[in-house]
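writing this on my phone so excuse typos. first protein, seq and then structure
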Amino acid sequence: MATERYSCTLTEAELEVATEQLREDPSTRAIEIKTLRDRLGKYPGLHARTDALFLLRFLRARKFDQEAAFQLVINYYKARRDEGEIFNDLKPSRVKHVFESGYCTALGITDRQGAVVILDKPGSWDIDRFSELDLIKADVLTIEKLIAEERNQVHGFCLLVDYAGFGLSHLARTPPSFAMRLCRLWQDVFPARLKAVHIVNEPSSFGNIFGLFR
């Protein structure tokens, strides 16, 4: 069974955080995984990954609440089905130009609480070369890669958004649906704990219009 092959990679300190903040119990972890796997196996038409490493992402993201973790898995697969624009052909080579622009970067550092820091720089978006959809794809790929690491499942993410260089031309090309899509992915789809969002160099001259996107 997948649970029998699972080997926890968390350090003692990370496991302590998982126990205190996420209600993770090593003695019942295998049971929790099996319970979620069994429930998913009974869901009509769902062909989900059910290995321990994958299911633990969802359990940890919802603090081992079985019902909430189950719903998050369903949301994840529904999003992959319904958001074909984002998830079809989702691979780094597809948005290499976005990463090269510096728009989305995993900084390789953590904040004081241990959350891994992701830097987004909307001002580096070359609106003549790529669309806002490519920005979302780059964000999704970055998060998907980072969430595979168990320590990030426990400590979560810190999003740093630097609006230096972001102008009215960018704002005009950024529909409200862009912000709504990203918010939905973070809150209802990704098995990720978004612990903090910090915004710097906000163009205050945009006033209430920019507040909508915040």
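second protein below, same order as before
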Amino acid sequence: PGKKVLIVYAHQEPKSFNGSLLKIAVEELTKQGCSVTVSDLYTMQFEPRATRNDIVGHLHNSEAFNYGVETWEAYKRGGLSKDLVEEQKKVQEADLLIFQFPLFWFNMPAILKGWMDRVLVQGFAYDLSKVYDGGLLQDKLSLFSFTTGGGPEMYSKEGIGGDIRYVLWPMQHGIMHFCGVKVLEPHICYAPENVSEEKRKEMLAAWTQRLKTLWKEEPIDCSPEWYFK
């Protein structure tokens, strides 16, 4: 109770299965006494492109634009654009980050990837010597909750898509773990569009059930061995 949760949500349709998963998370966590904030990226018309517009005022080097350097310098002097500052504040306050999205091309949708690209800047989420277990966002948990188009057999080691953990590697290890965030077991709803109404209800019930004991869960091992064994 009293925990703060940020749900970063990337789906265009509230009536979608992802929309149902979001609704359940908000209701269940609020019921537990958590304070829940949602960044609904499509509704916010969140800008996914990392551009010069993310820096307010002068550039560190106006001769050649380097996004990483410029956002780092801007972060230090409080010169990042308003939308980034707002998202960083939400991240800063959160004990848990939940990312809710449909899998697109073995990846998160562009609008969510853009959120990662723009919000998790150097100085805020990591620093040159402060990465992985030393990342700047330690003491936070994250959870990737997503839907797929293909069934579980497609995403097995023997399946055509390969182990789903390969898909999770850049998200969980390359972004979250890199920034020091601990990672909870992902929540995957396989092919909700291709299963019976009954099965969909079971999937939603399983998510509700999991959320009830979420705070008792231990983070997963985010080492390369976990992904590739």
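The two ends are 36 Å apart (CA to CA). thats all i got for now
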